[in-house]
Amino acid sequence: MYIPVSVLNGCGDSFIAADEKRQKASTYFFTDIGLMTLVCRHDHVLWIVNLTSTGEKQHYALALLDQLFKHIPTQMTIGLLYNIACQLKQSCCKWKFMDDSILSCIAFAIAIFHAYDHQWPCQVIYHPRKQEGFDWSDGEGCE
Fold first, then answer.
1. Nearest-angstrom CA–CA distance, 126 and 23
2. Cα–Cα distance between 38 and 136 in angstroms, integer?
3. Are 88 and 108 in contact (CB under 8 A)?
């Protein structure tokens, strides 16, 4: 389903996590201010990155996905549950962060808790219960 860019921009503005300028932690006292993990369907940690800058930067998610795709068959499809999956997909398409062959192997969905945060159309489209393959996975195991 096609989503106009204006809708995705509105969606991005509504997510606090998508606001890369918003600081939730200070780097004044600490070098590492958090962790981001890539977990499997069973919530087992596969890889972890240290967050060293404030805001939820997409390069952390991209680094984890890059690592994952180095270890799985090239034609394997994965389901990605992420708080701001709609924004990550938009960035990947717009800025070519990933090769189309890799991007086509990712089914993007918003983690279930965040799918109910706002009433933007992308939450309906990226809702894991409305997409094939996610079953009862909720993406909240490492929250």
1. 26
2. 18
3. yes
Contact criterion met (CB below 8 Å) for 110 and 137: no
pLDDT, tens digit, 9 for 90 and up, residues 48-65? 999 888 777 899 999 999
What are the pLDDT digits (tens) for 62-117? 999 999 999 999 889 999 998 888 889 999 999 999 999 999 999 998 888 776 66
Question: Residues 33, 137, 62, 84: what is their CA dihedral angle, to the nearest 10 degrees?
Answer: -70
Q: What is the DSSP string of 36-47?
A: EEEE-TT--EEE
Sign of the Cα torsion 121, 63, 60, 98 reads negative
Give dist(CA 89, CA 95) in Å, integer. 10
